[in-house]
Specification:
By secondary structure, the protein is mainly alpha-helical. The chain has four helices and no strands. The longest helix is centred in the middle third of the chain and has 15 residues.
Length: 75
């Protein structure tokens, strides 16, 4: 069973570990996030593996523009 986009966003925010709270929605562009960098992307890769048992790569993330695109990788 796939989790909801809202739960996914919560997991994403935990994985990226923003220093300041950031309002994130499904349509948020990853590149617009203040702390979106290689360390944040690594956190997302680990989240997919640990929380969902799914392996994704940096290239998978590079092909995603928004959080909704990341969420679709769960499919």
């Amino acid at each position: 069973m796939t989790i909801s986009i809202d739960d996914f966003i919560e997991q994403f925010q935990t994985a990226v570990d923003f220093q300041e709270p950031v309002n994130v929605t499904a349509g948020t562009e990853l590149r617009s996030l203040p702390e979106w960098d290689s360390l944040a992307a690594l956190g997302v890769i680990v989240m997919f593996d640990v929380e969902h048992g799914k392996t994704i790569t940096g290239d998978d993330i590079k092909n995603c523009a928004t959080l909704a695109d990341l969420y679709k990788l769960l499919g």
